[in-house]
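Re: the request from the purification team.
They wanted to know what the chain is likely to look like in 3D before they choose a buffer screen. I agreed to run a prediction and write the result into the notebook, where they can find it.
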Amino acid sequence: MYSEFWDNFNKIAEGNFEFRSNFTRYQFKSIRNYQNFSVDKPYYNLVVKLLPKKDCYCLMAYISKPSFYKLIHNNYREQIENEVGHTIEWNEYSVKSSATLIFPANFDNRTEWDRMCNDIISYFLKLRKAFAKYSINY
């Protein structure tokens, strides 16, 4: 199932110029339930996790500690959530911290895959713009 989902994602991403120009690596053949997306920035990276057993998928930004603290101390979390248009779970870990967006999904209904892929692309672009705006660049 994962391989078919990522094939579908690649097809949709290929048709989105803005996504292609902002993410250097998006074409992949995978049987894994997650994919990393390169943003050419050392202070964060973006990951998609497909969790069919939990009927959801997650978009995650793993953020360096200094950048995460900058977000917290400057109270940018609310602004980023407003600009992205979705609630974000902010989690602090020992090495890196994360911002996670969780979306319900029915992976058995393959007619929903196009919408899910378009949503992933849309939210990743919004996250990237918000992080750039609030200078997440230590």
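For the purification team: The helical segments are 2-14, 17-22, 65-73, 77-84, 113-133.
Please add any questions underneath this entry.
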